[in-house]
Amino acid sequence: MKPKEEAITQGKGLHHKLKKETEELRKQFQAQLLKLVTSGFGLVAALAWNELIKEVVTIYIKPYFGENSGLVSLLIYALLVTFLAVLVTYQLSKLAGKEGG
């Protein structure tokens, strides 16, 4: 092969390699961006649920134990959040298992 033809062949190989790496970078960027946006919305949803649960405890639990029932209210709040977290995680795991299998 002549030096000029060899340089052209190497240039085409390099171009193909760069194009492939650029495509991989684009895919990785999209995947990471999707994770970031999904996590952001998850945080917003969690904060909304947090406020709702706090209101439920304030409206329905505190009247039974009095206004000085901070510890009891926090315990009930923590139990509610834990129960919801376990329930949602369990349901999502089942859903993911069905989708994957």
Layout of strands and helices, then pairs:
Layout: H1 3-65, H2 70-100
Word description of this protein:
The chain has one domain. It is an all-alpha fold and 101 residues long. Helix 1 runs antiparallel to helix 2. It has two helices and no strands. The mean pLDDT is 82. The chain starts with a helix and ends with a helix.
Structural class: mainly alpha
Q: First CA to last CA: what distance?
A: 53 Å
Order of helices and strands: HH
Instruction: Provide the domain count.
Output: 1
Strand content: under 5%
Number of helices: 2
User: Biggest sheet: strands, sense, closure?
Assistant: none
At a glance:
This protein has helices at residues 3-65, 70-100. The protein has 101 residues and is mainly α.
Features:
single chain; 101 residues; 2 helices; rod-shaped
